[in-house]
Amino acid sequence: EKAVNLKKDLAEMQEWMTQAEEEYLEKDFEYKSPEELENAVEEMKRAKEDVLQKEVRVKILKDNIKMLATKVPSSGQDLATELNVVLENYQLLCNRIRGKCHTLEEVWSCWIELLQYLDLETGWLNNLEERVQMTENLPDKLDAVNDALEALESVLRHPADNRTQIRELGQTLIDGGILDDIISEKLEAFNARYEELSHLAVSRQIALEQQLQTMRETDHMLQVLQENLAELDRQLTSYLTDRVDAFQMPQEAQ
């Protein structure tokens, strides 16, 4: 009777493993939304816990069969053969579920990381857009134009590392068929805005540089003119003070 019960336990254990394999490993999953992906991750975590909890039951079966084998070698030997098959299948099931759980957790981590990089770069784009808007309607003063140009150039010196991460993470998920529609839409919107703002910012940078150069040249010309006028004024003043006749002055003074 002991052998019959153990044989029944082994059969039940094998049946449970077959059902677990069908439920967690063989059915196809489609992750078209973050909610579906998150639910799949949580389901695989529960599956891993469920499978690992059966380890206690497997150990009890193993101990009971060994004990029976010492008392009834013939029955114990047959059960030991079945036990080895169950143990092998159980270990394989554990490894496969652990592997799938790890993969899904990595995919979820990849998705969260992508969102974080997109959030960072969107913040930078918002800052860039604000700086570009601040270059409009500037007062016609050299300091104001120079400050606006320096502020814009400071934002444009943003490293490209985050955008590289966004491209690689997005492509990895899309290649795996994970959230491909959502990610493609997000990347398309981000890239379009990035290209538009980058071109606009560079155009404004070039325009400000040209404006600044013109203002500096004009400022230099005015400074030279003021110096010449000051020198002429000093000469005229000395002529008037000395009561010099106009016809005795140099031509330019006349």
What is the element layout, followed by pairings?
Layout: H1 2-26, H2 34-71, H3 73-134, H4 142-156, H5 161-175, H6 180-241
Helix pairs in contact: 1-2, 1-3, 2-3, 3-4, 3-5, 3-6, 4-6, 5-6
In words, what does this structure look like?
This is Utrophin. InterPro entries: Spectrin/alpha-actinin, Spectrin_repeat. Keywords: Coiled coil. This protein starts with a helix and ends in a 13-residue tail after the last helix. It has one domain: Methane Monooxygenase Hydroxylase, Chain G, domain 1 (Up-down Bundle), CATH 1.20.58.60. Helix 1 runs antiparallel to helix 2, helix 3 runs antiparallel to helix 4 and helix 3 packs parallel to helix 6. It contains six helices and no strands. With 254 residues, the chain is an all-alpha fold. The chain is 85% helix and 0% strand.
Which descriptors apply to this entry?
254 residues; mainly alpha; Methane Monooxygenase Hydroxylase, Chain G, domain 1; 0% strand
